[in-house]
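Collaborator request log, item 7. Partner lab (contact: R.S.) asked for a structural prediction of RNA polymerase subunit sigma-24 to inform their binding assays.
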Amino acid sequence: MTNPATHPDQQVFHEHRNLLFSVAYRLLGTAADAEDAVQDAWIKWSAADRSQVADPKAYLTRIVSNLALERLRSTRHKRETYVGPWLPEPILTGGDASEAVMDAESVSMAMLVVLETLSPLERAVFVLKEVFDFSHAEIAEAVERSEAAVRQAAHRAREHVRARRPRFAADRSRQREATERFFAATTGGDVNALLELLSPDVTLWTDGGGKVRQALRPVVGAATVAAWFAAIGTVTYQGIDPADMKAELAEINGGLGMVFSAPDRVIATVTFDFDTDGRIIALHNVANPDKLQAVADGTPYDMGTR
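Returned to partner:
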């Protein structure tokens, strides 16, 4: 009897599974929804007449894009009625994503936040074209639109992203060094060191989803943000005494970030966005417990685009 794990069709799907997750996560911004889309793609792949499939990779990518697009449309209302800022669900990433600058940038919190402001169609077209290098014709087939409509959506999305997300911040080694210094200053409660690292008009976005107490509006300005982080080691947070809270650096969404943990759970992540001088211009703090499962699981995702 054939072992199902070695069945050729299952092997083909398994070969492309990382890619399918990479597409779905960039379209949806949550690991849980992306995993569901990949699982649904497996069900469709299992039921399909695979003898008619000339290019399994393109076929599977088309299926998962379509499923993610449907899911994105249906979750839109939930995000619009969300308590406080809605941030993507952070994931741990492997070294590969951090080495490939384009891959890392396209999965960064800052980019995913910008993608959230696109329409579902624009988001799908932008991700498939700019990140995965699909042709307009391939995308048209994947999203079931005319090639002309796809070209229009691609143009709108590109302009929108360019206006909100200028390409190429400081080089990655400077970003890494600034993050390490921020970590040391936060854990040491050093306000002056924090102020040196922050842009004057830095913005802190916090997502507690109404489940834990967080700022419901962005916190703006270096002095306020520095005071917020310098106090972490001195105040009880979510019922956790500072002595029982652990902070550590981790690779999150293609860049170095911070994970805060209690003895029994992950309680928050912080990721950073930088200007060209290497100063921090935005911080994204996710504390909604529903969004921390992927980080708590501790398994890094391969977010490569090939």
